[in-house]
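G., the chain you wanted modeled:
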Amino acid sequence: MVDRIEAQYREDVRRVFMGESDAPVFNGTIDHASIVIEEGFRQARHIVRILTKRLEPACWERTAIIDAARAFLERGDTELHIIVEQFGPTNCTHENRFLQAVLECGGERVHLRTMPTNIVSMYRYNFMTVDEVGYRFEEDRDEHVAVVAGGDVHKARTNKLITMFDSVLEPHAQLVLEAA
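Predicted structure as tokens:
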């Protein structure tokens, strides 16, 4: 049975990513992060962008996240862009269930890159954007503390993060693989 606090948290995040709420939602645990990532995929219509330190299996390999990412990519008119800062054994496609699933399902619509260390040292944040509707922003990649925000009040910040990802970060990131 899902407790009422978790159900309310999930609903608050869903409303942000649907553009129905301008109220920020705070993320302080790996369970919160998992709900945010899952709801981001469930509510996204076209494109999800992720800048992350690593695809931590304890979070990213949860069945609910994998199922939500598959459902997002199965629609066919969607894209997933991921930049991983620490690409290692648990992030490689052969050992990471999340990456296996999204690459299998999304093929060439999944863009997986890694960021060179000299660029990573120039910033501390990580984030995820859901279409142009909302985002999850971690000011410090080494903390599991983030804010989830969206709607009209936060549209400028959402667009700034999208521009940062598309125009500044992604061009410096190195392609890890091209899906077949």
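The chain is about 40% helix and 20% strand.

Shout if anything looks off.
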